[in-house]
Design a protein that fits this description.
Chain A has about 475 residues and is mainly α. Chain A contains 20 helices and two strands. The model of chain A has no long low-confidence stretch (mean pLDDT about 90).
């Protein structure tokens, strides 16, 4: 490894150093604000170092990691999400009586895992990254298990996430083993390998399927979605935000990297499997969200549906499009960027509210009656988030949806397009229902003043609108990230 | 640049109204009025000259918006567009006047939504880039949704949801059709663009043209609305506050008609021509069935809502007959219906304010107590039933005249609608205004105030002018219609 490669690793090294520094600092000084500031500083430093090096030559650092513009830009996105997540955690943890500082170590480790995941083009590093994210998240999900009234829910969520992550990891690991047995290499791009395969192609098909299943758990595609609503509901709001925004985006980015170059013999099964999962996710995600009375569960089902929409872009990405070969990958990238903004906005509002009053943390929609009048900024933020999730123009959500539409039309995926239309129409019902509850006139609706996370809400709200009104720069950004493929 | 100026003045006015509301609630009203006045001043130069140059495109604003997909901010109008923008602004004043007394809480937010709705509708009438059109088409729903759901009547949440889901779901079909069309055009020419002027040159005669046309048609039919997708309208109109109903009936429905006129035929001439018999059948069914339903209502606003569906059936008929006479009639009908339905909804609002009810069965004998109000109701009911001398008559008559040349049987049946209209129009008068005073009006009813008189007076004058001098509009619309007919094969 030479200096060039070491330099390329700077963001990952910085992210890794955060947790080490935090461990040392906590040993001497226990100070919540200091811990949070160090985390934010480290994360933003890593993000900056990642952004500065955009445009440099792609570096393969050991066989495990590839640092190209895709890793740099999506890495920066993940770091930004982690930064937002750290910010929204501060007032939230401040309101609890739990020991607070260690949380940030876990968060930094999860961010590190996500970075490795995005930069991996080798199954070993993929597994390391995924496990790093998951193991940190078990602890984060259950972090408040002893300090909250709803101990049961939090504990249940933590355990559930752990068990199902374990299951998914074992699928993944077995799949990787089979692929290795087939090709004799752990590189993701098995077709770049020379030499004849050692076993029959069935091993490859089986192995790939199992890897896909393992990943599908993380993406919560139906039928591997069962953990999602419970974990969303039980986990503390900032953790749910990271889970919904950070983890899914990192895993999805990995999928783009893994699937984009594949044009191989085992395509049909992957293609059909993805199609089935996309269709089921769109149908069941939307159907199950319809009657939810709990905002966190509703967002969980809605995220299942949204991941179904996102899967359409992946299916399109496996084939080469008419408009341009990278349109579908670009669609996938844009979907991630817009979804990240919207999701973080929604969960920032939730964290903001939960820090003030535990009633909001349970997510019962009845607590949100007339929120717009009580806390105009939080209410506005949540309304914008709901409109964006519903895909109304001039919000980020519409740009994402527009891209899915155009990718589907370009590939003539008509059945999926129909499901997308029907699913979006169903989605309107539950998103609008939330808005109706937020604008409901309640007699006791008096404005309360509470700063908390208001600046972050405003920032993310503006980002959501900006992405929707002027998508040009972010499109250029995603195109840059994909230029290396 | 005027079009952009109109949009900006409305949007800025809305934001300013919201901000100033906390200092003085009257401020919001005056700010809205001012921003409407500025918009009107900007619109005046757009008033087209009769017999102008046949290219007839009045104003262009053309800036790149999203380079990647060739999306432009392309605003332009011909005479049809600018007449409809004028109608929008006029009804904006009417809505403002009717809200002056009725809206008492969260005034600033209300005017924000009102002005944003107007801006959205004006955007729809002037966007010639399909993507931009779609954005306006969807965005105008949000403020209207909020108007219904915050300031509406007892069942407002249900109505607001239904309104939004119907329109939005159908517009997703339009989005899919639009993108397919754009990619089709890209395949044919190698040019990625959403411009209406370019896309009308696309060859859409294949079977796929049929499907695309249907996508657009369904979206516009929902908005128009036509049977069988009219179900949202009676609820939305009934539950909306009066200014909301005025805007819904007066201009939001016209966006559907405008879409049929501007997009369905010019983009898909052959498919639309083949589809015309079905669309006309649906239109005729709308006319008769909705008229019959209207007669069965006892809720005044619901009754008026159904008459809207019936009248928009004529618009469907006129557009799909697709000749210059029927299209001219359609334009007149759109304006006349905009004025008369707005007036009837305004009256329903006035009655609700006074009687706290919309139930016709409990009214009665209003004429003796409120003669001015009753006289206006009579005038607008007569307009709705198609009395010669008022705008609606000209519209319906010319539509029937035009479509008779192409579809004599369907037209003959549709003409029956003009027999059914008097039934419900006179039913309103007989139940509500004649006879002995009923329970609700025992305690006396205030007659029109000066503000209300002004509001209804403007609409009445408009209808009379349109009835006696339809040439004012007919001369203007002749050239652009000729243009559309050429494009639409």
């Amino acid at each position: 490894m030479d200096w060039q490669q070491l330099l390329a690793l700077t963001p990952i090294l910085l992210a890794a150093s955060i947790s080490v520094i935090l461990l040392l600092v906590i040993a001497f000084v226990r100070d919540h604000l200091l811990t949070c500031l160090i985390t934010c500083l480290g994360l933003s430093g890593a993000a900056l170092s990642s952004l500065i090096s955009v445009g440099d030559v792609a570096q393969q650092v050991t066989p495990l990691l590839i640092i190209d513009d895709f890793s740099r830009l999506f890495g920066a996105l993940i770091l930004l999400i982690s930064l937002i997540s750290a910010w929204m955690t501060y007032p939230y943890l401040q309101a609890t009586d739990e020991i607070r500082e260690e949380y940030y170590i876990l968060l930094a480790l999860a961010a590190l895992g996500a970075l490795i995941l995005i930069a991996s083009n080798h199954f070993a590093s993929m597994f390391i990254g995924l496990e790093l994210v998951s193991v940190s998240l078990f602890a984060m999900v259950g972090y408040l298990a002893h300090s909250r009234d709803q101990v049961k829910l939090t504990l249940e969520a933590g355990v559930k996430y752990m068990v199902l992550s374990g299951v998914s990891s074992s699928f993944l690991l077995f799949g990787v083993a089979l692929v290795y047995a087939y090709s004799g290499s752990l590189s993701m791009n098995i077709f770049s390998q020379s030499g004849s395969p050692l076993l029959a192609p069935q091993y490859l098909i089986l192995g790939t399927t199992m890897i896909a299943i393992g990943i599908a758990f993380k993406m919560s595609w139906v039928p591997f979605h069962m953990w999602t609503p419970d974990v969303y509901q039980g986990a503390p709001a900032p953790v749910t935000g990271f889970l919904a925004g950070g983890v899914k985006i990192a895993v999805f980015a990995l999928l783009i990297r893994w699937l984009m170059p594949i044009q191989g013999p085992y395509l049909p099964i992957l293609h059909n499997g993805l199609m089935a999962m996309a269709a089921l996710s769109m149908i069941f995600g939307n159907l199950l969200a319809l009657r939810q009375d709990n905002l966190k569960r509703l967002l969980a089902y809605s995220s299942i549906a949204h991941m179904g929409y996102a899967a359409i872009t992946l299916i399109a990405a496996i084939n080469v499009g008419n408009l341009s070969p990278l349109l579908a990958a670009e669609a996938a990238g844009m979907y991630l960027v817009t979804y990240a903004a919207v999701t973080m906005l929604a969960f920032t509002v939730l964290s903001h509210l939960a820090a003030q009053d535990l009633n909001y943390e349970t997510g019962q929609l009845s607590h949100y009656q007339g929120l717009l009048w009580q806390q105009p900024m939080a209410g506005m933020g949540l309304i914008i988030a709901m409109l964006a999730l519903a895909g109304i123009p001039l919000t980020a959500g519409f740009i994402g949806k527009y891209y899915v539409f155009i990718a589907a039309v370009d590939q003539q995926l008509w059945p999926l397009l129909w499901l997308l239309i029907i699913g979006s129409a169903m989605g309107l019902y539950y998103y609008l229902r939330v808005i109706l509850i937020l604008v409901n006139n309640t007699p006791e609706a008096k404005p309360t003043r509470n700063w908390g996370l208001t600046p972050l809400i405003i920032l993310l709200g503006l980002a959501t609108l900006w992405l929707g009104i002027y998508p040009g720069p972010s499109i250029a950004w995603v195109q840059l990230a994909l230029a290396g493929f | 640049m005027q079009l952009l100026g109109i949009l900006i003045s409305l949007l800025a006015g809305g934001l300013l109204a919201l901000l100033c509301d906390r200092y003085a609630s009257a401020a919001a009203r005056w700010i809205s009025l001012t921003s409407l006045l500025i918009a009107t001043v900007l619109w005046l130069p757009l008033w087209p000259q009769a017999g102008a140059d046949a290219s007839t495109w009045l104003i262009h604003t053309d800036t790149v918006w999203v380079q990647r997909f060739g999306i432009h901010i392309l605003l332009a109008t011909d005479a049809i567009g600018s007449v409809l923008i004028g109608l929008t602004l006029l009804l904006g004043y009417i809505a403002l006047l009717s809200s002056w007394g009725e809206i008492k809480h969260r005034v600033g937010l209300f005017y924000l939504n009102l002005l944003f709705t107007l801006a959205g509708v004006i955007g729809v009438f002037s966007a010639m880039d399909l993507f931009l059109f779609f954005v306006f088409w969807e965005v105008m729903l949000v403020p209207m949704f909020l108007i219904i759901s915050i300031w509406g009547h007892e069942n407002r949440r249900y109505a607001a949801l239904k309104f939004f889901i119907y329109t939005q779901a159908s517009s997703l079909l339009m989005l899919a059709a639009m993108l397919t069309l754009v990619l089709l055009h890209y395949q044919q020419t190698g040019l990625l663009t959403f411009s209406w002027f370019a896309l009308t040159q696309t060859d859409t005669d294949s079977t796929i043209g049929w499907w695309l046309m249907l996508g657009f048609y369904v979206a516009f039919l929902v908005k128009l609305p036509g049977i069988p997708v009219h179900n949202w309208l009676p609820d939305a109109h009934t539950q909306a506050p009066t200014p909301g109903s005025i805007l819904l009936a007066g201009i939001l429905l016209k966006t559907g008609a405008y879409g049929l006129l501007r997009f369905v035929f010019p983009l898909f001439p052959q498919a639309a021509a083949e589809f015309a018999p079905i669309a006309i059948t649906l239109g005729v069914i709308s006319i008769l069935y909705a008229a019959k339903l209207a007669f069965a209502q006892s809720d005044l606003k619901r009754l008026i809502a159904y008459t809207s569906i019936s009248h928009m059936g004529f618009v469907s008929l006129g557009i799909f007959a697709w000749n210059s006479l029927s299209l001219q009639g359609t334009i007149i009908q759109m304006i006349a219906h905009g004025l008369s339905s707005a007036a009837l909804f305004a009256i329903a609002g006035l009655l609700q304010q006074r009687l706290h009810s919309r139930d016709l069965n409990r009214m009665g004998g209003l004429w003796q107590l409120a003669p001015k109000l009753s006289a206006f109701t009579m005038l607008f009911s007569l307009a709705a039933l198609g009395l010669p001398g008022l705008g609606n008559f000209v519209g319906e008559f010319v539509v029937l005249l035009g479509s008779f040349q192409v579809y004599p049987w369907a037209t003959a049946i549709a003409a029956l609608g003009m027999v059914l209209a008097p039934v419900y129009a006179l039913f309103i008068l007989q139940k509500g205004f004649f006879g002995p005073p009923n329970e609700l009006v025992q305690n006396g009813v205030a007659d029109l105030s000066a503000r209300e008189l002004l509001m209804l007076g403007i609409l009445a004058v408009g209808l009379i002018i349109l009835g006696f001098w339809p040439n004012l509009i007919l001369d203007l619309s002749a050239a652009p219609i000729h243009h559309l007919l050429q494009r639409g094969g």
